[in-house]
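Table S2 (text version). Query chain:
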Amino acid sequence: MKIVILDGYTINPGDNPWTPVEALGPCTIFERTPPELVLERAKDADIILTSKVKLTAAVLEQLPQLRYVSLLATGYNNVDVAAAAKRGIPVANVPAYSTESVAQTTFALLLELTTRVGAHDASVKAGDWVRSTDHSYWIGTLTELEGLTMGIVGYGTIGRAVARVAHAFGMKVIAHAPRIPADPGPTPVSFLPLEELFAQADVVSLNCPQTPDNTGFVNADLLTRMKPTAFFLNLARGGLVNEADLADALNRGVIAGAGLDVVAVEPMVADNPLLKAKNVVFTPHIAWASLAARKRLMGIVAANIASFIAGSPQNVVNAP
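Corresponding structure-token output:
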């Protein structure tokens, strides 16, 4: 079966070979595919691998040879999975490959907001310590995590990993999930309604998938419930947040700061209101991208394809 990878560059920019996938059949790899070239490049594919290239119902209808889609990510909102199911096309994702990397990046952003390592490093290199009359100085308020409350929205694999690290820092953990798990794991956690979580937490971390029902749910109403000393973190999906409302909350001091790895439109557009907002720290959607995580992703993708070829597809997110 012919395999076509539509946007492979971020998975393998040169350090993570496609060898496990190439061993499974004829393989054509495109680093990036603009929308106008999707049909041309995918028309003869039996198997498509995609990360951010959208496979809409209209696109799927024009790919009669397509038999299987393997995502290069955990999230599957870029594929119309219902339309694929109607055509008998299984769509598989890659679960749990980046859990530890996302948890690590969550705290990298939080520690920058609370300890400002990057800002102090830049200050020292600019000569401020050399010119200082004191042996020590600091930029803004330095915040200790011990004793603060971490509020986690979404308590799946990543949410639990964030909770574990928060607990190691001495933080109290509260969470909100659509369904409270019967076994929440070893980390002490209390589950609260969403509004109460935003009101009680010193740090709110989004670790939930984006669905049509929760798009833009972080809005002015929720943000105004937060403490003025609280921090907001989003390492899930940018579309979960009303970005104009968040920028306004930051600029007016409604909350103390935000750490963002994702935005609603990626790459980020020049007029995103968060670019000029106060007290926000960005990473360019890198929480998933450690080499270790990308190697795990490659292995799971190859196993997904092999299981489909063998007749027992795994990690399927729709029901053909």
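Notes on Table S2: Residues 1 and 309 are 9 Å apart (CA to CA). The chain is about 30% helix and 15% strand.
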